[in-house]
Design a protein that fits this description.
alpha+beta, SH3 type barrels, 5 strands, globular
């Protein structure tokens, strides 16, 4: 079973067109990005992009909520 990671956007300076405040995003593991204080996030288009990690906080969601988010995407 694939482990899914989710983050909530807490800031979007410079990324107002790409990131919505207080929105939950799925993040993908990326050790190289993390080494540069970045995070890989899947946006509304279904594509993943790098953003500053300081714009997000990791959250844990119940499996039922995770499934609902993934299905809605």
């Amino acid at each position: 079973m694939k482990v899914r990671r989710f983050v909530v956007c807490i800031g979007n300076p410079g990324y107002a067109a790409s990131l919505e405040l207080r929105k939950i995003y799925e993040s993908l593991p990326d050790a190289d990005a993390e080494a540069h204080q970045q995070i890989r996030v899947i946006d509304e288009s279904g594509e993943d992009y790098l953003f500053p990690a300081s714009l997000f906080i990791a959250i844990e969601l119940p499996k039922s909520v995770q499934s609902a988010i993934v299905r809605a995407a």
